[in-house]
Amino acid sequence: MRPVLFVTGTDTGVGKTVATAALAVARRTAGGSPYVVKPAQTGVSPDEPGDLDEVRRLAGDLPGHEGVRLREPLAPDTAARLEGVTLPGLAEQRDAVLAAAEEHDVIVEGAGGVLVCVGEHWNLLDLAETVVYHRAPVGFVVVARAGLGTLNHAALTVWAIQQRGLHVHGVVIGSWPEKPDLAAEQNRFDLPTMTGVPVIGRIPEGAGAFSAEEFAAGVPGWLLLPSD
């Protein structure tokens, strides 16, 4: 069973999808076979591109799947309730991840923060726990903002993951400004102290608009691939 990497954020809009694409590029460059899972995609209609499509645009064509797609840009369980949709169960999502992990390096991108429910009454931590229970190695990457306020949010997110006995490889700053202010410059040094895990990447602001070629060329300088 290959390792399963979970990508979560300190909040919504922190750059999880771009970070997921960068991790996929890094894994493939290292000789792996990335497979991206989005358990719940919200805020898109059936014919609109979602986060998995964006990962493929940046990282190139790679296998993956969405668990469910919902129209409203809300937490998945809320969006599903408003739409009258039954979310896939925890066992169903787990089995899909484990099946992919038989042959691929699975990267699971969450929705919003780590405690947001991606199913009915279960979140990304519950999914990771049940994957571990079925003997697949699991690790987390936390994507954080660069600026003021990120220290507390990042520390709380790492703490919540570790309280469940799960491993955190490190923090990725999802959008590093071209001209960082004083808070951002100091945060990159203070994040390891506050969270107890290293900063393993800084993805430049605007990288999500790069071509696939530009993106692939930049990844080695932005990101340190988590070890298994």
UniProtKB/TrEMBL annotation:
Its main location: cytoplasm. It is found in: Cytoplasm. Gene3D superfamilies: P-loop containing nucleotide triphosphate hydrolases (3.40.50.300). ATP binds at residues 13-18, 53, 109-112, 174-175, 204-206. Transmembrane segments: none annotated. SUPFAM superfamilies: P-loop containing nucleoside triphosphate hydrolases. CDD domains: DTBS. Pathway: Cofactor biosynthesis; biotin biosynthesis; biotin from 7,8-diaminononanoate: step 1/2. It catalyses: (7R,8S)-7,8-diammoniononanoate + CO2 + ATP = (4R,5S)-dethiobiotin + ADP + phosphate + 3 H(+). InterPro entries: DTB_synth_BioD, P-loop_NTPase. Mg(2+) binds at residues 17, 53, 109. Substrate binds at residue 42. Belongs to the dethiobiotin synthetase family. Catalyzes a mechanistically unusual reaction, the ATP-dependent insertion of CO2 between the N7 and N8 nitrogen atoms of 7,8-diaminopelargonic acid (DAPA, also called 7,8-diammoniononanoate) to form a ureido ring. This is ATP-dependent dethiobiotin synthetase BioD. The gene is bioD.
